[in-house]
């Protein structure tokens, strides 16, 4: 780059010298007007000057273009972050900002990637995808909730402003709890496998995603609903009963979440036992039943006596998830001699909101 700048400077100096030399012999317009001088310009000199200018122009055009090259720091992987943070703080750990928890893809359509890690398994939890999500930095979120019917229609009343008397406001507190996972791996094993830190750190994130998904199922299972006609076998009428157990105002944006076992039975259910009532919708990437989207949860129970196998309703109004925006991933050597202890931690919590917005389907006793 210094050689290029030097060459440009020399060329510009050469141009200036040529121009200065020509100006010394140039007669100003005022000289013509005041002195009425008659100057005959030697055509040979003009041709010579033109040749010199063309040579300088060619020389300038031959110079390489200058560009501002921005040097970016190379992207560090999780192993390098562990080593760097251990050297600086004595702890081989880092916080991973998981946009993929709430935003499964970035603008390019690829999974959100941070330090070689991504949180796509969080998106496979339908309750996290369907519920209302809030970010918080506190231990708990307290939210006001309205209870009582939205019954505007009263006997012989049109635009009646009289208080219905059934509405009340209560508070729902969502606790942000710690969800974590721990795994011990022999140090010699991790040293023998290239990229082991990234592999096992990703596995830890997937593990806490699974633990969280199971905790969401436990909360949903406690919601009241309807009971199937049989203990182990589902009928299409059971899903119809589930749908119509929810008030119409919550059916407008309603969706089904069913267990993998219930989905296996639902695929064969219809009036003619062909499964024709379950229709795949390519626009949403999943099936529809009675016009409502159907999502599958691998963590809900298979059809068996007293087990909750499905839920239906407006999940945005029925469930709320409060979470932090990052998860901690670490590698420790002091917990078990001869081993690395890989550890991941996420803070989140879920709570039921409107009690009428969601209902569940439980198998018969």
TrEMBL record:
Give the originating organism. Answer: Pseudorhodobacter turbinis
Alphabetized UniProt keyword annotations: Coiled coil, Plasmid
A Pfam match = Phage_capsid
Residue ranges that the Swiss-Prot or TrEMBL entry lists as coiled coil: 39-66
Q: What is this protein called?
A: Phage major capsid protein
Q: Which NCBIfam families match?
A: major_cap_HK97
Entry keyword Endoplasmic reticulum: no
Q: Does the keyword Endoplasmic reticulum apply?
A: no
Q: Where in or outside the cell is it found?
A: Virion
Domain Phage capsid-like C-terminal stretches = 120-362
Q: What is its main location?
A: virion
InterPro entries documented for this protein: Phage_capsid (IPR024455), Phage_capsid-like_C (IPR054612)
Look up the domain of life of the source: Bacteria
């Amino acid at each position: 780059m210094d050689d290029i700048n030097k060459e440009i400077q020399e060329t510009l100096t050469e141009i200036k010298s040529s121009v200065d030399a020509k100006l010394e012999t140039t007669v100003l317009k005022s000289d013509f007007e005041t002195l009425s001088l008659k100057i005959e310009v030697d055509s040979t000199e003009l041709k010579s000057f033109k040749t010199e200018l063309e040579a300088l122009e060619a020389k300038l055009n031959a110079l390489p273009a200058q560009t501002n090259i921005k040097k970016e720091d190379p992207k560090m992987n999780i192993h390098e972050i562990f080593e760097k943070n251990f050297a600086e703080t004595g702890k081989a750990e880092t916080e991973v900002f998981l946009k993929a928890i709430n935003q499964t893809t970035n603008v390019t359509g690829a999974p959100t990637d941070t330090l070689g890690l991504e949180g796509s398994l969080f998106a496979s939890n339908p309750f996290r995808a369907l519920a209302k999500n809030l970010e918080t930095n506190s231990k708990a979120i307290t939210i006001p909730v309205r209870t009582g019917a939205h019954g505007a229609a009263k006997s012989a009343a049109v635009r009646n402003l009289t208080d219905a008397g059934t509405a009340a406001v209560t508070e729902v507190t969502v606790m942000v709890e710690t969800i974590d996972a721990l795994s011990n791996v022999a140090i010699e094993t991790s040293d023998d496998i290239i990229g082991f830190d990234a592999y096992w750190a990703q596995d830890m994130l997937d593990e806490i995603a699974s633990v969280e998904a199971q905790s969401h199922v436990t909360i949903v299972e406690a919601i009241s609903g309807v009971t199937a006609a049989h203990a182990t076998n589902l009928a299409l009428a059971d899903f119809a009963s589930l749908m119509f157990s929810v008030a119409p105002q919550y059916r407008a944006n309603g969706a089904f979440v069913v267990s993998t076992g219930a989905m296996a039975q639902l695929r064969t259910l219809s009036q003619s036992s062909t499964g024709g009532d379950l229709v795949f919708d390519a626009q949403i990437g999943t099936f529809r039943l009675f016009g409502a989207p159907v999502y599958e949860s691998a963590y809900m129970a298979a059809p068996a006596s007293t087990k909750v196998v499905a839920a239906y309703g407006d999940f945005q109004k029925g469930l709320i998830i409060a979470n932090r925006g990052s998860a901690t991933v670490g590698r420790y050597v002091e917990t078990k001699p001869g081993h690395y202890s890989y550890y991941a931690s996420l803070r989140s919590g879920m709570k039921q909101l409107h009690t009428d917005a969601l209902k569940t389907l439980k198998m018969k006793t």
